[in-house]
Amino acid sequence: MDRIKIIGGNRLNGVIPISGAKNAALPLMIASLLTDDTLTLDNVPHLADVEQLIRILGNHGVDYSVNGRRQHQDGAYSRTVHFTARQIVTTRAPYELVSKMRASFWVIAPLVARMGEACVSLPGGCAIGTRPVDFILQGLEALGTEINIENGYVHAKAPKGLRGAEFTFPKVTVGGTHTMLMAACLARGDTVLHNAACEPEVVNLAECLNAMGAKIKGAGTPTIYIEGVEGLSGARVKVISDRIEAGTYAMAVAMTGGDVLLKDARPDYLRSVLDTLSKTGLEIKESEEGIRVARNGLDIVPTDIETQPFPGFPTDLQAQFMGLMTRAKGVSHITETIFENRFMHVQELARLGAHISLVGQTATVEGVERLLGAQVMATDLRASVSLVIAGLAAEGETTVNRVYHLDRGFERLEEKLSNCGAQIERISG
Length: 429
Ligand code: UD1
Description:
- About 30% of the residues lie in helices and about 25% in strands.
- It starts with a strand and ends with a strand.
- The strands form six sheets. It has a four-stranded mixed β-sheet. Strands 2-15-17-16 form a four-stranded mixed β-sheet, with helices on one face.
- By secondary structure, it is an alpha/beta fold.
- The chain is built from 14 helices and 24 strands.
- Helix 5 runs parallel beside helix 6, helix 6 runs parallel beside helix 7 (about 200-210) and helix 8 (about 245-255) packs parallel to helix 10 (about 320-325).
- Uridine-diphosphate-N-acetylglucosamine binds near residues 135 and 175.
C-alpha cells in the first residue's frame, strides 16, 4: 500500500492548478445513462473514484473513450471523456461495484427513469456515518417508483414510467437532489423539489441535463422546477472546478505560510470558506485567474466554524480546517452538523501533538506551538488530507499510511504540493 512521506517546515510558493471537481464529475457521468447519445465531459479529473464509476457504468453498457482514445493509452489529467449508453445491457448494479463508492448508488435514478426498473446494491463509501439512502428512495417513490429492499439490494420498478410530483426533502441532501433531477427530467409532467441542495455541483448537473434537452429551472436555489421531457440527447459539458481541492490548498498555505495562486479556483463557490480563512489571517485576492492566498509570518487566529449545506462552510473541508486550527494561537471550536461520525482525524492529528477534545458534535481545538512528525493513518478521503496539511507544518518526518483514500479525491497531490516547495513524496508498495 502506498504511503506519503512529508518533511514539514517548508513554505508553499507558486501556482497550484485546481482540477475538475470529483463531486461534479460523478453525477455528470451518471447522467450519461439517460440517453443513447454521447455525453462529452471536459475537465474530468483523473481519480480513483472516477475510474471506479467508469467500471460501474461499463457494467450497465456505457462505452467511453478518453480524448478520442481508449483510456489506458492516455496519461493526461483533467481529460475530456466521451460516454455513450447506446444500450443498457443490465439494470443491476452489484454489491462488488457499488459498495466501494456511495455515489454509485445514484445510478438507480437514471436506470429507473430510462428503463422502468433498477436493482442496485445498498452503497458503501467513506466511513463517516450511517449515510442512509431513505430520502433518495422516498423521492423516487413520490415519482411513482415501487421500492422493495431485499438481501441488501434495492429493487426499483416503474413499469409505466415515472410521473412528476411535488416533493420536499426532509433534510438537504446533495445525492437526493442529484437523483431527483435525473429521474424527474424523464417523468411525465411537472416536478417541484423543495429544500433542494444548492451546491454548485447540483447547478453543474442541472446545466448538463438542460444541455441534453431537459427543462430545469431554479437549480442553485432550494426550489427546483422540472418539466418532464420525452427523451434526452447528447451534449458537451465542462466539469466545474473543485472547490474542496481549492479550499484544501488554501488551508495548506494558511498553515505553512507562503504565497500561492490557486489557478481556476472559483471564489463564488468558496465564499464562506474564504471569509473564515481571512479571519484566521490568510490574505486572499480574487482574480480572473483564480484565487491568490498568502500568509507571511503572522499568527494563525483561532476561528470557530460549523458545517452547513452550501453556501455554508462545507463538511468536506472540516477536517482540513481542524488541521489548520491545531496551530492557531488559542482555542477554536469546530461543529459538524452534516455527518454524525466525521471526527476520525482527531486521534490521528493527536499523534502529531494536536490538543483536541470532542464533546458530541463539537471539537475544541487548543492550538499548540509546534506539531511533531509521526506515523499517521488516513481514515477517509477528507480526513487524510487534513493529516497532509498538519504534516506540512510538523517538525520532522510525517508518514501518512493508506493513501488510497487520498487517491479517491485528490489529483496529483504530491506533485502539486512539491511544485510549490513542499518536501513530499509517495512511497510505493
Ligand atoms: C455529497 C458529497 C460529499 C459531501 C456531502 C455533503 C458527492 C459524491 N459526495 O455526499 O462529499 O460530504 O454531499 O455535502 O457529491 N441523508 C439521509 N438520507 C438520504 C440521503 C442523505 O439521511 O437518503 C443524510 C446523510 O446521512 C447526511 C446528510 O443527509 O447526514 C447529507 O448527505 P448528502 O448531502 O446526501 O451527502 P452525499 O450526497 O452522500
